[in-house]
Amino acid sequence: MSDWQTRCSARKQLQLDAIPPAWLVPLPPDDERSVIQTPSVCGLLTPRELEITNTIDIDLLLLNLRTAQWSSVEVTRAFYKRAIVAQQLTNCLTEIFVERALARAKEVDDHLHATGQPIGPLHGLPISLKDQFTIKGLETIMGYAGWIGRYAQSDCVLVQLLYECGAVPFVRTNVPQTLMVRAEITTSRRHFKPHLTFSTPLRSGARRSIMCSVGPQTPTIAT
């Protein structure tokens, strides 16, 4: 096995290891053509988590967060679990950082409890980011095997603004190599459409569309 293949294999294993074992779900048979309903029927999400993740009105979601009807920790965990189900079905994520995201969500909840005021207009809202937006301490591979092991020294400006607005970045979504057309990249596994599992998405940003297809999702940042 060549060096780049070894690096890619190790990177894929790290990605798998980032998924909490309790969040692994039984996968449908290979010949099942649509997996859109899987997050709702797999048993991983509680009824309350399904209620949260089925909320498509962002204004209502933000209202429940800033009035403490729902905590940021439980909202982040709910959307994370749904995203992880989507990942197992379609390979739509590049970066999975559960503990870090939940720690940020707790920080947001603690601020609201201590001051009675939200941090900002996006208080407690989980937000996914396309892979090119750097987050301090995480790799930004962009599909390049040669970029494996490069860790960002700082947050990009957009991520800084999201933190200032009270948001909770919680996953990064996959991209084709160099953001070009091809759907298969060497640093991750092949990606699939949830409504047509024998085919793959063929554009940059399609992985975010995949997450939405598997169920309602919080906002994402992409270009």
Overview of this protein structure:
Helix 3 (47-53) packs across helix 5 (72-90) and helix 5 (72-90) packs antiparallel against helix 6 (98-115). The protein starts with a helix and ends with a strand. The longest helix has 19 residues, at 72-90. The protein has 223 residues and is of the alpha/beta class. The protein has a four-stranded mixed β-sheet with strand order 1-3-2-4, with helices on both faces. The chain has helices at 3-17, 38-41, 47-53, 58-66, 72-90, 98-115, 157-164, 206-213; strands spanning 93-96, 126-130, 168-173, 220-221. It has a single domain, classed as Amidase signature (AS) enzymes (Alpha-Beta Complex). Residues 74-181 form the Amidase domain. This is Amidase domain-containing protein. Belongs to the amidase family.
The CATH topology corresponds to Amidase signature (AS) enzymes
Give the quaternary arrangement of the chains.
single chain
Strand arrangement within the widest β-sheet reads 1-3-2-4
Count of folded domains:
1
The CATH H-level homologous superfamily: Amidase signature (AS) domain
Work out the strand percent. 5-15%
Our count of helices gives 8
Average pLDDT rating: 85
**Proper CATH architecture:** Alpha-Beta Complex
| Total beta-strand segments | 4
SSE succession: HHHHHEHEHEHE
Task: Enumerate the spans where pLDDT stays under 50 for 5 or more consecutive residues.
Answer: 195-200
Q: What is the molecular shape? A: globular
> Share of helix among residues?
25-40%
What top-tier CATH class fits best?
Alpha Beta
